[in-house]
Amino acid sequence: MDAVQRKECGRYVAELFAPEDEVLAELRREISAQDMPEIYVDREEGRLLQVLLQAVGARRVIELGTLGGYSAIWMARALAPDGQLITIEREAERAEVARRFLDRAGLSDRVEVRVGEALELLPDLANEGPFDAIFIDADKKSYPVYLDWALANLREGGLVIGDNAFKGGAVLDTNTDDPGTRGIQEFNRRLAGDPRLTSVIVPTRDGVAIAVVKRS
After folding, report:
1. Could you give all domains of the chain from N- to C-terminal order, each with its CATH number?
2. Distance (Å, rounded) from C-alpha 162 to C-alpha 192?
3. Are 68 and 94 within 8 A, CB to CB?
4. In the chain, fewer beta carbons within 10 Å around the N or the C end?
């Protein structure tokens, strides 16, 4: 299968399994209008997140990197009515966009947007765990630190999910000096080698790393 066919297959999956409603479509337009980086998950990745969360019966979920709330909406829709997603965004303006669209999607009761640096907020979040899943889509150089936190605060059978596991193909460069690329490379190596985890990278648009915390 060549690159064109792969792209068409991705579109096929998105249209068949992950149709977008008007809230999600308008949120994408708003992200563009606000000059935010258009780095949110694809529709098929949003659906993958839903499948994963429902597979483990997730009720308590952490997201690092809210942006405009696109992935938060996908994930929150997979939770039970009494579930909770806590999503962290360092930019207050982006957090306000996310809150507005989460409210429009009818999800404000199950999603809390917290503003600040993830590395500063995570220590206090430990008191609210354990959690069922963590979706990491924040600064790439800190992925290994986020993994440390996840392993200390996820329940057995919980999920670590990391977006941009290929970093646009940069992970193949073994001589890179880029901190973000090196962070992703270390994160991937640790997922693959940690005996506490069963892990894989799903080769989506930019790779989604998925790990399950093994049961004792």
Report:
1. 3-213 (3.40.50.150)
2. 13
3. yes
4. C
Element (H, E) at 206: none
- The beta strand positions in 17-118, using DSSP E, are 60-64, 84-89, 111-115
Which letter does DSSP use for residue 195 in this model? T
Sequential pLDDT tens for the chain (216 residues): 777 888 888 889 989 999 999 999 999 999 999 888 888 899 999 999 999 999 999 999 999 999 999 999 999 999 988 999 999 999 999 999 999 999 999 999 999 999 999 999 999 999 999 999 999 999 999 999 999 999 999 999 999 999 999 999 999 999 999 999 999 999 999 999 999 999 999 998 899 999 999 998
Angle ∠(107,110,114) on CA atoms, nearest 5: 100
Cα distance between residue 135 and residue 139, in whole Å: 12
> What token pair was written down for 95?
């957090």
Q: Are 207 and 164 in contact (CB under 8 A)?
A: yes
- Distance, in Å, from the CA atom of 177 to the CA atom of 124, rounded to the nearest integer, reads 32
CA distance 142 to 163: 13
Positive or negative: CA dihedral 111, 143, 212, 127? negative
- Cα separation, 37 vs 68, whole angstroms: 10
